[in-house]
Amino acid sequence: MKRALSLALVVFSAAGAAIVAAQSNGTKPAGSTTLDSGRGKQAPIFEVDPLWPKPLPNHWVMGSTIGLSVDDQDHVWVIHRPGSVEDNFKAAETNPPIGVCCKVAPPVLEFDQAGNLVSSWGGPGTGYEWPVSNHGITVDHKGNVWIGGNDNTDTQILKFTKAGKFLLQIGKHGVHNGSNDVENLWRAAKIFHEPEANEIYVADGYGNRRVIVFDADSGKYKRHWGAYGTKPDDTKVPEYDPKAPVSKHFNTVHCANVSKDGFVYVCDRVNDRVQVFRKDGTFVKEAFFEKDTLRSGSVWDMTLSRDPQQTYIYMANGVNEHINVVLRSTLEVLTTFGDGGRQPGQFFGVHNLDTDSKGNLYATETYTGARVQRFMYKGTGPVTKKVQGPPWPRK
Fold this sequence. Notes:
This protein has 395 residues and is mainly β. The chain has a single domain (34-382), classed as Neuraminidase (6 Propeller). The protein contains 1 helix and 26 strands. The protein has a 4-stranded antiparallel beta sheet with strand order 1-26-25-24, with no helix packed on it. A 4-stranded antiparallel beta sheet has the order 3-4-6-7, with no helix packed on it. It is globular and about 55 Å long.
């Protein structure tokens, strides 16, 4: 009897630690997810593709890769920050040139499945205000390309065709009036297109503390909300403390992804948590991930798996330099892969994630990581390790 009781307590303790959720009655949970919960369950298996993409032409190099999106043709779009490229990579751009390597690539780069660069464009032009600090790229289901920026003066988002023709600007550069300004953004982190209603969800995020939604064709304002679905405000908040009561405010809204079954998953990056909403902004639940992570937080970006049920969430942690594989129904971490470093399968500032139609996963790296990597989907299998390390090819 004592043995049975002890076993029941262990099972209950593990299950209770797996999820930190609150229903829409406003209950505020405490605790964090646990990596141990994944053992004995199924999860996707990935292997890094060390030969993707192919080297850029023209002696081009990338700076901080700060955005990623896979379009309906499985082409991979990356935006980087040309101004972050180190001087040692600009020898061919000096006047006169002091060497043949290298030149800075245009900010927007499009790769095909073979890893070839098939188009490139971007930068200041007529009729729009290009961001000072590029941040985020999204190709919508109509084939349009959306771009944001997170400089202190970047209060706009832009829409282009795939060929780089300007279509729409929402917000005026350098103008903002806080988290309830419905005409301007402030340091927007990422844009998500929801095709059913043809709406764009903006993680408005570094300056403001909200998710804001616009019509994707006209740019007309639709709605916005803050943490727990409340009206956001810009009250100064203390630095994140994992031992303090949970914050009533967002702290760096870094993504807002919509699932096919109508839930909005928001990266509350510095607060080490994900909050889940319905599309009208009604709060559903939240979960904390590696909640002792300080500095810039544990939830940098996420993308959903490509199976019809979108069973899994892939979640980037750019401080701990790995990707968490999360069961979407419970928000428990099943396993994690990656590590800090410069080799394939390792990361420095893993920043954005997206998948293609085959389930392959792509990841960009900010700071001096300055690259994009592909992880080949190998099906699902039993979770045998809670921390996998770099997913090196088995053959």
